[in-house]
Automatic annotation (TrEMBL):
It is found in: Cell membrane; Membrane. This is Potassium transporter. Keywords: Ion transport, Membrane, Potassium, Potassium transport, Transmembrane, Transmembrane helix, Transport. One of its GO terms (molecular function) is potassium ion transmembrane transporter activity. It is a multi-pass membrane protein. The lineage of its organism: Eukaryota, Viridiplantae, Streptophyta, Embryophyta, Tracheophyta. Coiled coil: none annotated. GO terms for cellular component: plasma membrane. Residues 491-741 form the K+ potassium transporter C-terminal domain.
């Protein structure tokens, strides 16, 4: 039996049960590394101070009942069977939900969106289409009408993301030190089923009675306020549930469902029941040593299990760090985090990345939290509040997804948020009461990351609005003539811009300050779209700027928020081939399925109407298109471009040839234009970048001046520039400064 799954290139492929089961096995170490360490510290944290043992087993049974039903309702019912279905073309996490909502309600935070982006295959795959007339149309129109609601939605997504980072910073310490303890040994289950069954049958076979929800009522009735406060410790049994959804892109929905339902869930239940069975016969001993999981393990297995527990903590911490890297990459791609260095550690496995700046930041945060707390109880309080906050955010976003994306009734969404929101609100209140006992840490960390994200997003948005308002008129360009009023020399000049239409104002600075310019000019925009992946055959949008004889082109390279950006050599080749394919197919008498001509408007900008853009794929997808063949010519290492100061003198000249398809025939004008493009590519490419200095305009409020002049300026100066995203050699780069008054 085969199963269908959509891969990262957007194609549907068949997967056998063997593949699904292999993915399920692999997910045990990555997805559940955090969740499976929870038996180490749940009982210890719950019975820390708020409640104490009595002569009966009511407290122990009550805690076990809470653990059982919490694991059943939140990870199993909510995440495994409901939330996992809200994947964004195979990707999960808070930003995946936000991305879904952006596409279906058009509340996108990315400023340079186009209507052409909605033609991408991943926008409407899996039966998700934009709403027309149904029960959610009024909600959709309300979100699109009020900007304040769009900002609230963005802030909600950012809070969930920042809380995940804050949770991972604090929970890394908690996982590790919870496994080795401070003066007491707590270990992860080596074989939770075997040890759990042993403890149940050896100490208390009747412990299964605690699974009745009646014991939760008796627990709260007897312990009252102390029992309510102890819910913050019980909450730790579901830490890592969000990781199932966040790491969905590395596995599959079915594999995670199988792994959790048939392996992780019963193992956790048996582990907690085994601890409860042991504690029910030793509850009169007041030492904390006898509260942990270690003492419920048979004595001969304690040291081996201790070693396994330490290794499990290392695996769990690695999953935490990797998850943080993935979150930061998504935020950066969607314009909500400064550009950082992203190193792809594997050329074969998608999604394996390393971010040095974030790695060092996490290390410093972990050391600071460890030195400051020195106590697993306060570490647990810090982790618990962050966990439940993320879950509340997911519940809120899911209620919108149910209406806007799944086209279900508003009543169903209200029932979802009321049922799960009530449970999570109960745990949230118990965690919030311990704000001064360590729970303030994730709040403080999340607030710092939230400020960084929002300041960067606000500054980027204002900068883009300034670019749109300062665009140069097409009449100005036409008045310059085909030579643009300057000397045109051989070579290709790539002008990096964030605009998807019109002529950027910084181009007039280039023309004014440079005595010569390249014979072929390309306005290059590299942008992210609110989908996880863009298929290679839909990568580029290519069009003209001005008449043909001007040799000015616009090329928009579109990437999903989880796509891997290519290196400069392959990107340059794809870029030149896409322009050549556009030239070849521009004539009305020739069109192929590989190149689809569309009359796209400019979407949000709405200023340049009926600008013609053509969808062109990468060179590897153009099976019947133009191919680029390059051969190094070591006899001439200088090249013929007169703009030699912006080219790399060490780069040898390349002999470039376009391999044209046999038929149909290409007209003479197109051949001449292709010949010019070939000569320009031989001469070399230069990347012209605008270096923006953003300042608040006169009359701005004090808060805006602080945000722009201090906050955004600091982040911009300490972040990676756009030239890094292209892996451009510095010798081939020219920067022109410009002051932005926003």
């Amino acid at each position: 039996m085969d199963l269908e799954r959509v891969n990262r290139n957007g194609r549907t492929k068949r997967e056998s049960w063997r593949t699904v089961l292999t993915l399920a096995y692999q997910s045990l170490g990555v997805v559940y590394g955090d969740l499976s360490t929870s038996p180490l510290y749940v009982y210890k944290s719950t019975f820390a101070e708020d409640i104490h043992h009595s002569e009966t087993n009511e407290e122990i049974y009550g805690v076990l009942s809470f653990v059982f039903w919490t694991l059943t309702l939140i990870p199993l019912l909510k995440y495994v069977f409901i939330v996992l279905r809200a994947d964004d073309n195979g990707e999960g996490g808070t930003f995946a939900l936000y991305s879904l909502l952006c596409r279906h309600a058009r509340v996108n935070s990315i400023p340079n969106c186009q209507l052409a982006d909605e033609e991408l295959s991943e926008y409407t795959r899996d039966g998700f289409v934009l709403l027309d007339k149904n029960s959610g149309s009024s909600l959709k129109s309300t979100l699109e009408k009020y900007r304040v609601l769009q900002r609230v939605l963005l802030v909600l997504a950012l809070i969930g993301t920042c809380m995940v980072i804050g949770m991972e910073s604090s929970h890394f310490n908690f996982c590790f030190f919870g496994s080795v303890g401070f003066g007491a040994f707590n270990v992860k289950r080596a074989s939770p089923i075997a040890i759990g069954l042993y403890n149940i049958f050896h100490w208390n076979p009747c412990v299964y009675q605690a699974l009745s929800p009646y014991y939760m009522y008796k627990f709260l009735k007897k312990t009252q306020r102390g029992g309510w406060m102890s819910l913050g410790g019980i909450l730790l049994c579901i830490t890592g549930s969000e990781a199932m959804f966040a790491d969905l892109g590395h596995f599959s929905q079915l594999s995670i469902q199988i792994a959790f339902t048939f392996v992780v869930y019963p193992s956790l239940i048996l582990a907690y029941m085994g601890q409860a069975a042991y504690l029910s016969k030793h509850h009169t001993i007041e030492s904390d040593y006898h509260i942990g999981f270690y003492v419920s393990v048979p004595e001969k297995l304690r040291w081996p299990v201790l070693g396994i527990a330490i290794l499990a903590a290392v695996v769990g911490s690695q999953a935490i760090i990797t998850g943080t890297f993935s979150i930061i990459k998504q935020c950066s791609a969607l314009g909500c985090f400064p550009r950082v260095k992203i190193v792809h550690t594997s050329s074969k496995i998608h999604g394996q990345i390393y971010i040095p700046e974030i790695n060092w930041t996490l290390m410093l945060l972990c050391l600071a939290i460890t030195v400051g707390f020195r106590d697993t109880k306060r570490l647990g309080n810090a982790s618990g509040l962050a966990v439940i906050t993320v879950m509340l955010v997911t519940t809120c976003l899911m209620s919108l997804v149910i209406v806007l994306c799944w086209h279900k009734s508003v009543i169903l969404a209200i029932c979802f948020i009321f049922f799960f929101g009530s449970i999570e609100a109960l745990y949230f209140s118990a965690s919030l009461i311990k704000f001064l006992e360590g729970a303030w840490v994730p709040i403080a960390l999340s607030f710092i990351f939230l400020m960084v994200m929002y300041v960067w997003h606000y500054g980027t948005l204002k900068k883009y609005e300034f670019d749109v308002q300062s665009k140069v008129s097409i009449n100005w360009l036409l008045g310059l003539g085909p030579t643009l009023g300057i000397v045109r020399v051989r070579g290709i000049g790539l002008i990096h811009t964030e605009l998807v239409s019109g002529i950027p104002a910084i181009f007039s600075h280039f023309v004014t300050n440079l005595p010569a310019f390249h014979q072929v000019l390309v306005f290059l925009c590299i942008k992210s779209v609110p989908v996880p992946h863009v298929k290679p055959e839909e990568r580029f949008l290519v069009g003209r700027v001005g008449p043909k004889e001007y040799r000015l082109y616009r090329c928009i390279a579109r990437y999903g928020y989880r796509d891997v950006h290519k290196d400069d050599v392959e990107f340059e080749k794809d870029l030149v081939c896409s322009i050549a394919e556009f030239i070849r197919s521009e004539g009305p008498e020739y069109d192929t399925p590989l190149v689809q001509k569309e009359e796209f408007g400019t979407g949000i900008e709405g200023l340049e109407k009926n600008e013609r853009m053509t969808v062109v794929g990468t060179s590897s997808t153009q099976l019947d298109g133009i191919k680029l063949r390059e051969e190094s010519d070591l006899s001439d290492t200088v090249g013929t471009s007169e703009l030699r100061e912006i080219r790399s003198p060490e780069r040898p000249r390349k002999r470039v040839r376009f391999v044209l398809p046999d038929s149909p025939q290409i007209d003479r004008a197109a051949r001449e234009e292709l010949h010019e493009l070939m000569e320009a590519r031989e001469a070399g490419m230069a990347f012209i970048l605008g270096h923006a200095y953003v300042r608040a305009k006169r009359g701005s409020s004090l808060i805006k001046r602080i945000v722009i002049d201090i906050g955004y300026d600091f982040l911009r100066r300490n972040s990676r520039g756009p030239n890094y995203a292209l892996s451009i050699p510095h010798a081939s780069t020219l920067e022109v400064g410009m002051i932005y008054h926003v």
